[in-house]
Amino acid sequence: MTDSRKLLEDYVENDSETAFRELVSRYINLVYSAAVRLVDGDIHLAEEVVQTVFIDLGRQARALSKDVMLGGWLHRHTCFVAARTMRSNRRRQFRERQAVEMNAQQDHSAENLAQVAPILDEAINRLGAQDRAAILLRFFEQRDLRSVGEALGSSENAAQKRVTRALERLRTLLMRRGVTLSAAGLATALTSEAVTAAPAGLAASISGAALAGAAASGGTTLTLLKLMTMTKLKAGIISAVVVAGVATPLVMQQQAQVKLSMENQSFRQQAGQLAKLQAENGHLSNLLAQAKSSLLSKEQLSELMRLRGEVGMLRRKTNALGKLRSARGDSSPTLTPPPEASEEFTVPKESWAFVGYATPESALQTVAWAMSKGDVKTFLTGLSPETQKSYAQRFEGKTEDEIAALLSEEIRPLPALRLDRKRVSADGEVRFVIYSEERDDGTTKTKDQAVMSFTNIAGEWKLHEPNHAATDISPPDAAQ
Predict the structure, then answer these.
(1) Which CATH topology does 295-478 take?
(2) Which of 200, 436, 458, 467 is deepest in the core (most CB within 10 A)?
(3) pLDDT at 1 (0 to 100)
(4) CA atoms within 13 A on the CB side of 279
């Protein structure tokens, strides 16, 4: 017979269902007998206790010591589970009544052992670890003295003495509870009546439920976990059907009320958002009216750039729609985008700030600000992947501080950004001419010009190949 410890190790290390089922088969009678006694002979309640005990074994197997006496652990845990299940006023009253009846008895034998069964298991649970292991191995697991000695790590003679001492101590504990029973009578009673055969099929049912509980706790996937015990499930389904028949109309009414309430709240939120958008639209109109007559603040400039970006996006969508209709041969009228007007405006250096990448203008200002601050990370973030590679070759061998100084030096002579012309190409790129300006004795003069290209990548505009000539963009009056 394979040792129980080896079976337990096989289950812990390899998640062996076969090993676990063998353990259940070996100890099912021990656990079931104790459970029946502890729950006053209630078979259904005893089966629930047995199921809980083996589920706990499956969950806690990895935490058990390698030297654990499995029979002792199962019996002790059965006592704990049964006590937790049976704690109630009815149980306490039953104990008191049993104690009164047992005090009137002079002796107990194997024939009336069933009357003191709950006290017997509690008394065994009160024994020391070695004594409890000896009783359980000898009478509950029904091993011979040699096997008991091997399990306890002693000889056959030492095991016999240990069992004798354990029986005497158990008899003493029973006498304190009012039960008078000789050592020989106690041994005979335990030999013949301690273990009761569990119902047929209970081992297979418990194995499936315990393996399922262990897998749910430890995250282990087992093939037989789909086979679950259905005793509680059937009762739960019947109860659920009865409750559902009564509660369904109430639930439907409550759901309808909640739905109406949510719709009303959604309408109120939409009305509030509409009013907010109308107010924002008026505010933007005022900003546009003031843009040509006065210098914009940082916040106003950011708002204006966002608005320009939205206009550019609408224009591209209109162009795409016109091309699609032309390709389909649709004769319906199409919207013709207006020619590009001059996008001229000036952003002084003191107004530069990090304004994100939502529009090409915002991306340009963010890149210029990063260069002026020596913020290498923000500068590189504003570049397309191809442009990043180009700058990586240019910056090769330089430290971050050297790169920051180089960027600051390049942007330092530029007191402002002057955006003169802008074009949106068919491929979605935005190009505009940048005039760099230089103050000289309080005056401003044009020094150089360059074409900057921006492309939209994942919803953000990035500087892309800033090496075009100014002639790549038509003058304002020729822009299409």
Answers:
(1) Nuclear Transport Factor 2; Chain: A, (3.10.450)
(2) 436
(3) 47
(4) 6
- Are residues 113 and 196 in contact, defined by beta-carbon separation less than 8 angstroms? no
pLDDT of residue 378: 92
3-class state of residue 239 by DSSP = helix
Q: Domain residues of the chain, as ranges?
A: 4-235, 245-294, 295-478
pTM of the model as a whole: 0.31
Q: Looking at residue 337, what DSSP letter applies?
A: P
Query: What 8-state DSSP symbol labels residue 344?
Result: -
- Coil, helix or strand for 93? helix
Measured CA angle at 393 (ends 391, 399), to 5 deg:
80
- Count of alpha carbons within 13 Å of 228, Cβ hemisphere only? 12
Amino acid 66: pLDDT: 80
The torsion angles phi and psi of 379, rounded to 5 degrees, stand at -60, -50
DSSP secondary structure letters along 148-180: HHHHHTS-HHHHHHHHHHHHHHHHHHHHHTT--
> Quick one: pLDDT at residue 27?
94
In the prediction, which pLDDT does 107 show?
A: 47
Residues 70, 8 contacting (CB under 8 angstroms): yes
The pLDDT score that the predictor gives to residue 174 is 85
Distance CA 40, CA 114 (A): 9
C-alpha dihedral (134, 9, 198, 135), degrees to nearest 10: 0
**In whole angstroms, what is the distance from residue 55 CA to residue 404 CA?**
65
Q: 3-class secondary structure for 358-410?
A: CCHHHHHHHHHHHHHHCCHHHHHHCECHHHHHHHHHHCCCCCHHHHHHHHHHH
Q: Is residue 432 a contact partner of residue 420, using CB atoms and an 8 Å limit?
A: yes
Sign (positive or negative) of CA dihedral 43, 48, 53, 55: positive
SS3 call for 100: helix
What pLDDT was estimated at residue 92? 63
Q: What is the pLDDT of residue 5?
A: 84
pLDDT for the residue 176: 86
- Give the 3-state secondary structure of residue 71: helix
CA-CA distance, 142 to 329, in Å (whole number)? Answer: 94
Which sign, positive or negative, has the C-alpha torsion 263, 265, 271, 276? negative
| Residue 433: its H or E element | strand 430-440
Low-confidence ranges of the chain (pLDDT < 50): 1, 89, 105-108, 110, 220-244, 246-247, 251, 292-295, 331-341, 439, 467-474, 476-480
Torsion over CA: 407, 411, 417, 418 (sign) = negative
Alpha-carbon distance of 269 to 11, in angstroms, equals: 59
Q: How far is CA 399 from CA 91, 243, 367, 395, in A?
A: 81, 73, 20, 8
Do the beta carbons of residue 457 and residue 379 sit within 8 Å? no
